[in-house]
Hints:
single chain; seven-stranded antiparallel sheet; disordered N terminus
Amino acid sequence: MSNLNFGQRIIKGKTLNRSTKEAVPYVNIGIRNTNVGTISNLDGSFSIVIPQKLISDTLIFSALGFGKRIIPIKLLEQDKDITILLSEKTTLLNQITVTASKQKNKTFELGNRSFNGGAYEPDTTYAGRCIALLIENKDSYIQKGLVFPAYLGKVNLRVFRNNLQSFKFRIRLNDVDSLTGQPNEDLLQQSIIVASSMKNGWLNFDLSHLNYQITKPFFITFEQILDVNDRTAIANGYRDFMAKYPERLKFDTVEFEGKKVVRQKIMRGGIDLPGTFIGISSTKTNLFSCFERENSLGNWKKVHGIVCAYVTLNTQTNVTNDVTTSTEIPCKDALECKVQKLCKDFMDESAMNGMQLNISKGNKTKYSFSLGYADVENNIRVTDSTRFRINSISKAMTSVALIKLMSERKLDLDAPVQKYLPDFPEKKYPISTRQLAGHLAGFRDYNENDLSDYIRTEHFDNATQALRIFKDDTLLFKPNSQFHYSSFGWNLIGAVIEGASGQNYLQYMTKNIWQPLKLSSTCGDDTKSTINNRSKFYDATGQENDLGDLSYKYAGGGLLSTAEDLVKFGNELLHGKYIDTNLKKVLFESQYTTDKKATGYGIGWYTGKDKNGHRIWYHAGDSFSSSSYLIIYPDDDIVIAFLGNSQAGVLFDIQKIGELFYRE
């Protein structure tokens, strides 16, 4: 445990319930598909060692019944205690009525009762080791008369030998991955842990009170819960044993699934090692499928030994009369229910505090959803008028200002930027506004290894003043030779608008774009001003964090708006007359590199097709504390906007919403 290699990072802190601020124990923490994973202790405390090669990865905090936290490791400071706030899931399902049958209940048993040894798998550096047994009604163990759906009863795990003062196992149910046959998503959201001091015997988990319906094969998964004291005792005991009996560590070769596998085992007397041995059978492996993973989020691998465990299924629930098991979602029609459930499920899974979704079809609003909290601490809910950061959708908004200035003959997209900004330093090659707008000018984007390049505290009065951040930078390449996304290039466009119009960027946008289009909730996220209905924003740990002053990048990523305003803006581009119709087309025409390759980006807009071949114009945006999407289906006459007050919203599948509506 103390043999740490140079370059590793230690992340430590506590996992707390956001609502109650109480500790959340036994949270799975780790990096997906690696050998790095652990579990928080009873008091929520945790410590995890991150190898240098994984510093650029993300750390996942996952607890049954709570939304996940997915945090870039670069944001977590070495040896500084952090607090991870986890939000409880509150998913509402459609109303379900369960009626007890007059038929007599029958109980069936599925699984493996046989064992001819015990598995000792010391878990000393990390934690969260699991072993999973596939439960299916087939082969020689088929239970005649078992008809699905059936109700979950009891789960039983055979403890072969326990040498600890006490031990704990958590029971999980996992569905079966259709491609790999491995354990997949958790079916139960309750964290059910059984502690025992038994030396051997059957460890029982009574799940009958859940009235959980089983309709298809599933895994019963046993996760050993070891806190830091347990792991230290096991490590010390193993070390002492091997120092005393080094000759007892043996390696042999077995054949598993047609391959020769080298297996390490302790001969003679290993049964006395500190730890818990679970019953394992190696004689009926062709009848069962068993997988294990070494830590909280590691890869599953199929194993030779089959865990001794079984489950009982009942033909009847233990409910004796009509009950409503959950709350009905109030919605007007089936389509609205589908959309609302997608949103609610996403918020529960991602632990995002608040969001807006607005959908229009045929220039008419179909649905508008405002879910969660704009201010968690003060219990202020999101409404249709709550303003969120729109991040890089600011570029799409700014693009219309370019078209407006073109229509007034105040701006030539292909003229050098010095025509409007005489003091801007000339580069090796001339740069035009069109190149800037298409990410073809050669300017850099944020330095990913330097957060101060993105999170800034200095306030700028206008876009031209903010140019000093990057005006002396050397171009990365000859303009038009390649596509390179650059928010700094759009910051320069904000200054071009000031030079061409003679007005401050925010003043120009207010008078010439937002007011004429009646986008009354759209503005710059100006920290010097009091802004009504502004959401609070939350970083990856779940804590409130505004992450700096955005005045340096209004044009490229510093605006506030609502989903309703964004959809109204999208419909102006489809149906409106305020902006010259012919000039609007240039926004959605892909630009090209000098070698004739389409970039898929016009002027402030991505252009392309969704997975079903429907044309889309779109932009997305995110920061460490917010996320946004705006998507237009020009041929289907659909506009959809999504806004969230944490970065978790980048995972929201907005195209799935679009598909629901054009298939309507």
